[in-house]
């Protein structure tokens, strides 16, 4: 299978890894890998079919190569994926941590994949469980129900499972993947309506999809600069410790972030990219294994 190649020169500072980093679900993500030579590899379900995408910098250009039926679509979307439509210039920092991070990382932008389904599946898997549990289930579903990544992708890469593949998973196979009944039903509801999930409002019509899941998808699929992940187990506390020196709940986080509207998510992204870590006062939340229940 031959590669389709595009070269694109951004007219702004660009940190490719920083921009696409939120798409990665753990170091073992079958749909996102960093090759030994530093190239970034992603897979996705385009309207025209599955595809693999390789990204690398070369003499100021972005060299993008793609394989598979959806190769042209993934290549067409590279500028948006790397933040070409983002508008960070109007952002104003109100806290020193954010101001300093922005100064140190001028290439950090908000990209968009335009692929709702590929962001929705891992977001649903992350509902009300630990990151370890969610990543384990994501790896398992990709490996058993996703297609092999087209082209010379790193070993083990897979394209995320399609809505049709999700609808074909039996109850026992869901159990083996460690997915409980509530998340299973939400995934099946979403798969049945996948063709219509074109806006935040339509996402929220799906039983089991609320503001948190919608925000997680909006940030990645549409590059939404304001959609904060309300209801997250960690983010309010991280934002609180980073900006005001104490833990916050959702209401407190939104109050602190209000001056950043309509770019509140960008402020959170700078906090996450800064390397800040909140204090630890208790053991980590224990992961459950639904496969053993």
TrEMBL record:
InterPro entries per UniProt: Alkylbase_DNA_Glycosylase/TA (IPR051912), DNA_glycosylase (IPR011257)
GO BP: base-excision repair, AP site formation; DNA alkylation repair
One Gene Ontology MF term: DNA-3-methyladenine glycosylase activity
Protein's UniProt keywords contain Methyltransferase: no
Key word DNA repair present: yes
GO cellular component, one term: cytoplasm
Keywords: DNA damage, DNA repair
Official protein name in the record: 3-methyladenine DNA glycosylase/8-oxoguanine DNA glycosylase
